[in-house]
Specification:
mainly alpha, 0% strand, flat
Length: 313
């Protein structure tokens, strides 16, 4: 009869074997090759002639890629059999699991457009095998709050200058500033410095003061705001690198022993010897400093007991 204590031990053995497979270099290369093959299949299917001529071969190749991804996910789940919660705490694991599970849903499999989009999402899984790409994706995600604030400030600046442009140039240049919508479109294109020379020359024909309008707008929108956005992205990139370095450092640390687990005998004996040596050194130090008159002689160093070891632990 199998005892209940064998279940955790069995899960630990399963996790160790699956972890050995998933951490092997050949395993990562195989999955990476399957991701690239999946991306290539999506590109081939855009050619209607090739897709019609090799339809069965393309479908077989897609099933083969799906099989590789399914086996990979099962092995990754097995590698966390002893600690399932750690698997679901990793955002990349959740992303991989969601993309793979969607391929088996009946409603998704019947919708060709959604299925292709999900297959395209598999290409993002290359970030798992490319640490630098993973850092960039995390940086993009962390920069979203700052980017939203940048977009709000940029829209405010764009709207103010569009209103000023409509007031100043609506009658003379209705094609570019005849309405608030046209003014916004004109200034949005000028933000990329596209057509700036033509806009400045046209403004000078209306009024020489227009150079102040365009110069201040280009300085604020194309230089100041863009540099602010670059600063937000660089700050997020530094944070993403720090997070990646912290995760790598935590992963390299040895796993701590379970609470209540017996301490190795060799380590316990070494610890007892060190405690005894420290106590003997303290006794010798007190003797060297001298004893007051009438003070009792120092007793011999006490023996280290099991209770002392428990206290130190």
């Amino acid at each position: 009869m199998t005892s209940a204590g064998n279940a955790p031990a069995g899960r630990a053995v399963l996790a160790a074997r699956c972890r050995a497979l998933t951490e092997a270099p050949l395993f990562g290369l195989t999955v990476f090759a399957a991701i690239l093959a999946n991306a290539a299949l999506l590109g081939v299917e855009t050619y209607s002639g090739l897709a019609a001529e090799y339809q069965q071969a393309l479908q077989a190749a897609e099933r083969a890629c799906l099989t590789v991804f399914t086996v990979e996910m099962l092995l990754r789940l097995g590698a966390h059999a002893d600690r399932p919660a750690r698997f679901f705490r990793d955002p990349w694991n959740l992303f991989d699991l969601a993309v793979l599970a969607s391929a088996f849903l009946p409603l998704v499999r019947e919708n060709t457009t959604v299925l292709r989009l999900l297959r395209l999402a598999r290409v993002l899984r290359t970030a798992r095998f490319l640490p630098q790409l993973r850092v960039l994706l995390v940086a993009v995600g962390r920069s979203l709050p700052g980017t939203v604030s940048f977009l709000f400030v940029g829209a405010l600046v764009l709207y103010v200058y569009a209103m000023v442009g409509w007031v100043c140039f609506a009658d003379s240049d209705p094609g570019h500033y005849g309405s608030i919508g046209r003014a916004l479109l004109t200034l949005f294109l000028l933000m990329t410095l596209d057509g700036l020379g033509e806009a400045v020359h046209a403004g000078l024909e209306i009024s020489r003061l227009s150079i102040l309008f365009y110069a201040s707008y280009v300085l604020l929108a194309s230089f100041v705001l863009v540099n602010v956005l670059i600063g937000v992205v660089l700050n997020s990139l530094d944070e993403a690198r720090a997070m990646e370095a912290g995760e790598d450092g935590a992963a390299s640390l040895p796993l701590a022993a379970a609470p209540g687990a017996p301490e190795p005998v060799e380590h316990a004996e070494e610890l007892r010897e060190r405690i005894a040596a420290v106590r003997l050194a303290l006794a010798e130090l007190e003797a060297g400093l001298g004893r007051p008159a009438g003070a009792p002689a120092l007793a011999a160093p006490p023996q280290v007991t099991a209770s002392d070891m428990d206290t130190v632990a």
